[in-house]
Amino acid sequence: MKAFATLLDRLVLTPSRNGKLKLLADYFRDTPDPDRGYGLAALAGVLDLKSVKPAMLRELVLERMDPVLFQYSYDYVGDLAETIALVWDGGEKDDSTDAEQPSLSEVVTRMNALGRTEVRSAVRDLLGHLDPSGRFAFLKLVTGSLRIGVSARLAKQALSDMSGHGDEEKPAHSRDVTEIETLWHGLEPPYEPLFAWLEGRGERPVLATPAIFHSVMLANPVEDGDLAKLDPADYAAEWKWDGIRIQMSSYGGTRKLYSRSGDDITGAFPDIVDAINFDGVIDGELLVGGTLRSNSPTRTFSDLQQRLNRKTVSGKMLEEYPAFVRAYDLLFEGDVDVRARSFLERRGRLGDIIDRAPHDRFDLSQLVPFSTWEELDRVRLAPPDPVIEGVMIKRRDSVYQAGRLKGPWFKWKRDPYNIDAVMLYAQRGHGKRSSYYSDFTFGVWTETPDGDQLVPVGKAYFGFTDAELEVLDKFVRDNTVERFGPVRAVKAEPDFGFVLEVAFEGIQRSTRHKSGVAMRFPRIARLRTDKLPRDADRLSTLTAMVEAREG
Amino acid sequence: MKPEALLHPTPAGLFCPIGRFHVDPVRPVERALITHGHSDHARAGHGRVLATRQTLDIMRIRYGEDFCQSEQAAAFGDEIEVDGVKVSFHPAGHVLGSAQIALEKDGLRIVVSGDYKRGVDPTCAPFEPVACDVFITEATFGLPVFHHPDPKHEIGKLLTSLKQFPERSHLIGAYALGKAQRVIRLIRDCGYDEPIFIHGALARLCDYYTSQGIELGDIRPATLEKKDPNAFKGAVVVGPPSAFQDRWARRFNEPLIAFASGWMMVRQRAKQGGVELPLVISDHCDWPELLETIGEIAPSEVWVTHGREEALVRWCELKNIPARPLHLVGYEDEGD
C-alpha cells in the first residue's frame, strides 16, 4: 500500500501532465506485480473492490475517540476519508513501519473475500495496520471516491512511457499507447501478462473477444490552404454533431460502450446498450433526444451533459434525457475486421446494420452533398440544425486508421464566437505559471438599477502567448484593487481597464452563473489594448447568441 | 494567591501586575519578557526587554540596533528577580534561543511555554519540562489530525523528488527564522552536500545560526548575474513562501514548489497553496506531543493560548484537568 499511497499523495498535488506521467511511469516500473496491476486498475477506475459506507467508517472512528474532538477535526479538514486517516492514531504517535503495512494486493484480496458480517472488523484491523497516507488511499478506494485528476488514458500513456526499458542485454520495444488501448478491455487486473509484454519479458497478450475498445480515427482541423490542394470529388462530407464521440462494441453477448479515449461508459447508458441487436464495432456520436428516423429533434450538449460522468442512471433520467447513437463508421462487422475497406464501402455495410437496429436508438449520419469547397463552406456556416458544429470531410477511399493522420479526414468547424470582455479578476496559475497571474475572469456590461455594471461571464487561462502573459501579469500587479486569498480584483472602469477578445466554441444558459450564461471552451484570442472597457460587449449580445443557438 | 493575580491576559498580551511586565506583548510596553524571536512574539519598540542572548541577537538582526531602549540577557536556568517576582528561562525547543518563561511568587509558579516542540531538532536546545501550578501552552496544532512524521522521512521525499525530476529547481518554502535553518540542516544530515541556494531574506539569519555553531554546509545566494534558465536546474532553493509567488521565482527552471510546515499535513491546505511537494516539518507540538507534555508536567491548571484552543480544552475536560482558553490576539502562525 505504501507505494500506491505515496503515488496518490504526489498525484493529487501535481498539476502538470508531464509530472503526472513521470510519477505514474516510475510507479509502474518500480512496483512489483501484482501490486502495480491493482494500482493501475484503481487509477483507471476499473478496480473491483468491496465498498464500505461512510456511516460505518464514522462509527469505527467514534469507537476510538470523543465525538466532539472528531467533529472539530472533521470541520477543520473537510473530507471524511482524510479526517479518519489523520485522527486514527489519536494521542499516540504513529509507530507503524513500512515493512509491516499490508500491500495493495493483500488489501484487495482480503476485502473481496469478506462476508457481509466480517467487513467491520476487517476494516478496523486494516486501518490499524496502515500509516496515515496508506489509510487515506485505502479509504478513498473503499468509498469509491478516488478523484486525483488521472484519466484511464493518462495511465495508459504512462504504461507506454515505462515500456521499452528492458534490461541492457534484452532491450524491450517501446509500446505505443494506441496498441495498449486496443488490448486494454480484453485484460483483467492485475494485468501481469500486459506488464510482462511491456517489459519485453512476454508475448503480446491474446484477447478472447473482439468486444473491446479499438483506438479511434481522428481528424485534423482544416487550415488555410488545405482544401485548395484537394479535389472535392475525392471527398464525402457529413455533419459534425455536438455530442461525444463513442464506440459501441458488441460480440457474443458482451455489449460495451466506450468513450473515444477508451473509458468504459456502458453502465451509464443502459438505454443504448440494451437496444444493441448487432455484433460488431461501430464508431458514432452519442447524443440526447430523438433520432432522424423518429422525427424528433436532437437536443443540445447541455442536455447531454446531464447524462455524462455518472456511474449509474435513474429511470427519470432515462425518460427525460433519452440517449441515442448517430453512427459514423464500422470497424468490425461481426468478428470481421473491415477497417482496411474504403470509407464508402464501410458506410454501405453500416447502413444495412443501422436499418435493422431499433429506430429510436440508432440512426445513420447523413452525407452532405456538395460539389465545390465554396459550396460546402456556405452550408457549413448555415447548418440546418443548431446542434451541428461544422462538417467532417472524409476521403471516399480512406481506410480506418487509428490516430490523427493528416489527409484522409478533416474537421471543418463553424467559426468560434468572439466577444470583447473586460478583465475583472486574476488568479495565479500552477506549475510553470505559479508566479504569473494567468487565470482571468472576465465580464461584460449589463444594465442594473444602479446603472451599467460589469457582470462576470467566464474564465479563461490560455490562448495568449508568453509575451502576452507578461503584459497581462504586469497589468494585474499594477492595478490590483482588492485581494481575496489567491484572487486579485483588478481595476475595471469604463475608462480604465483591460479589454480581452475572448473566443469560445458555444454558449448555453446556466443557472449556476450569475450572468445566466456559460461558455464552452473560452480562451483569450487577442489583447485589445486599443479598446477601452466602455467599448466592450454587453450581456444582451451573449443572450442573443444563446437564443440564436436555441433557434 | 489566585494565578490570575500573578498573570492575566490584557489587550497588549499576558501581563504580570506584580512584576509590572508583559510576556510576548503584541504592542509596545514599558517592560517585556520575550520567549523567542518570531515576529508575532518579539516586536520592536518596547522599553526594557528581557530575553535569552540569542533571542536578543535575533531581534537586533531583524529590527536593527534600536529595537528597544535597554536589554537584559537571561541564561537558561538562572533566577532573575523582577519587582519581587522570580523569573527564569528554560529551553522550549522551538527555534534557536527560544525559551519558556517561569514566574514564581509566594510558592505559585506559572510557566509560559511560548511556542515549543518535543521532537529532535539539532538547531536549538531541547524542551525541558518545568514543574508548575499553571502551564500555559500554545495549541497551534491542537487538533487530533496533527501527527508530525519523522522529519527525516519528509526530507526523504524531497531527495526522491530530486532524483525523479532532476531538471526542475526544487523551491522549499520555509519561514526565515528557524524553519529555514532547520530544513537546511536536516537536508545535510540526510547526506545531501550539493550547494543549497537561499533567498536574500534568509542570509543574515543563516549567518547567525552558523556563528552559533550550527553547521549549514555550502549555502549560496540564489542570485544571478544575467538570466540563465539552466542556472538552478535541479538545485535546492530555500526561501520564504511568499517569495515563490513573486516575480523573484521566475529565475528558476520549471520550479517545483515544496513547503516545509506542519500545515502540510492536510492535503487541501497544500493544494490551496499551490504546493506540489508538502514537507510536514513543524517547529510546534503535534497533538500527541501536546497531550504528552501536559501529562508529564501534570499542572493543576492548563491555560491555552493561540491556535485551536477548543479541542485541547475539551481534551483536558475529558481528563478532569481544569483548563481554559486565553483568547489572546495577535499571534499568527509565523514560524510554521
Kindly summarize this structure in a few lines:
Chain A has 551 residues and is α+β, with helices and mostly antiparallel strands. Helix content of chain A is 33%, strand content 22%.
CATH class (first level) name of one domain in chain A: Alpha Beta
- How much strand of chain A? 15-25%
Individual helix count of chain B = 8
- Apparent shape of chain A: globular
Mean pLDDT of chain A: 90
Any idea what the CATH superfamily of one domain in chain A is called?
A: DNA ligase/mRNA capping enzyme
The largest chain-to-chain contact, stated as pair and per-chain residue counts, equals: A-B, 41 and 40 residues
Amino-to-carboxy terminus distance of chain B: 36 Å
Gyration radius of chain A, to the nearest Å?
A: 27 Å
Query: Measured on Cα atoms, how large is the radius of gyration of chain B?
Result: 20 Å
The structural class of chain B is alpha/beta
**Oligomeric state of the chains present here:** heterodimer
Q: State the domain count of chain B.
A: 2
Question: What fraction, in percent, of the residue positions of chain A are helical?
Answer: 25-40%
Instruction: Please provide the count of β strands of chain A.
Output: 19
Q: What is the H-and-E element order of chain B? A: HEEEEEHEEEEEEHEHEHEEEHEHEHE
Which features characterize this protein?
heterodimer; A: 551 residues; OB fold (Dihydrolipoamide Acetyltransferase, E2P); seven-stranded antiparallel β-sheet; 22% strand; B: 336 residues; alpha/beta; Rossmann fold; seven-stranded mixed β-sheet; six-stranded mixed β-sheet
Architecture overview:
- The complex is a heterodimer of chains A (551) and B (336).
- Chain A is α+β, with helices and mostly antiparallel strands and 551 residues long.
- Chain A has helices at 2-13, 17-30, 35-43, 54-62, 67-77, 80-87, 104-112, 119-129, 132-142, 152-162, 177-184, 192-198, 270-273, 301-305, 315-320, 343-356, 373-381, 466-478, 539-550, and strands spanning 220-221, 235-241, 244-251, 254-259, 280-288, 323-333, 336-337, 362-364, 388-395, 409-413, 417-428, 437-448, 451-460, 480-484, 487-490, 499-504, 506-509, 517-520, 523-527.
- In chain A, a hairpin with a 2-residue loop joins strand 6 and strand 7.
- In chain A, helix 2 (17-30) crosses helix 10 (152-162).
- The longest helix of chain A is centred in the first third of the chain and has 14 residues, at 17-30.
- The mean pLDDT of chain A is 90.
- Chain B is an alpha/beta fold and 336 residues long.
- Chain B folds into two domains: 3-145 and 284-325, Ribonuclease Z/Hydroxyacylglutathione hydrolase-like (Metallo-beta-lactamase, Chain A, 4-Layer Sandwich); 151-279, Rossmann fold (3-Layer(aba) Sandwich), CATH 3.40.50.
- Helices cover 23% and strands 26% of the residues of chain B.
- Chain B has eight helices and 19 strands.
- Chain B is globular, with a radius of gyration of 20 Å.
